[in-house]
């Protein structure tokens, strides 16, 4: 785990980790369903829950489809929720291009399941208050999303 994530986790009231497995379509969406349930339990506003679910779901699916697998960490802090998505590569060569609506490198198999519109990353960014992405070819992709609650 990175030092930065470790420090954030220390100040979180609650932290949940979800292992996301490469090409495991059967369990894709499990993290976002679980986090949705937890947000309901703490009484968050409906629209906030919807945004958190979208952010988590899109991050989860991207790890399933495009990466070697990774972990989604959701931290509930006093004033905000942070969602971190960190995978094990293969990374994104051109991050600005990947952030462009409509850009997708999804394989035919993923497209046949309805993925590959190239809207996941733009939607994630739109749903949160702060969005950070760090990646490069041959490196892990690290995404941090913050939403004020
Ligand atoms: N975790 C990741 N690892 C490697 N590449 C990624 C990752 N996430 C996104 N990408 C790259 O960025 C592109 C755009 O991602 P985005 O989520 O916006 O669209 P998509 O996943 O292709 O389609 P959609 O999300 O609409 O089903 C992907 O096609 C892929 O090339
Ligand atoms: Mg996507």
From TrEMBL:
Residues in Histidine kinase/HSP90-like ATPase domain copies: 53-146
Source domain of life: Bacteria
Organism: Acidaminobacter hydrogenoformans DSM 2784
Name of the protein in question: Anti-sigma regulatory factor (Ser/Thr protein kinase)
Keywords: Kinase, Transferase
A GO molecular function held by the record: kinase activity
Matches recorded under InterPro entries: HATPase_C_sf, HATPase_dom
Gene3D superfamilies: Histidine kinase-like ATPase, C-terminal domain (3.30.565.10)
């Amino acid at each position: 785990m990175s030092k930065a994530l470790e420090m954030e986790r220390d100040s979180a009231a609650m932290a949940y980790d979800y292992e996301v497995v490469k090409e495991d379509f059967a369990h894709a969406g499990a993290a976002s369903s679980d986090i949705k349930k937890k947000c309901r339990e703490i009484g968050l506003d409906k629209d906030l829950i919807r945004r958190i679910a979208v952010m988590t779901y899109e991050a989860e699916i991207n790890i399933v489809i495009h990466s070697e697998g990774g972990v989604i960490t959701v931290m509930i802090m006093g004033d905000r929720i942070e969602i971190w998505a960190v995978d094990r590569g293969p990374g994104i060569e051109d991050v600005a291009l990947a952030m462009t609506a409509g850009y997708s490198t999804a394989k035919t198999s993923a497209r046949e399941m309805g993925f590959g519109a190239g809207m996941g990353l733009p939607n994630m960014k739109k749903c949160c208050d702060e969005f950070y992405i760090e990646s490069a070819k041959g490196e892990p992709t690290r995404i941090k999303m913050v939403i004020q609650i």
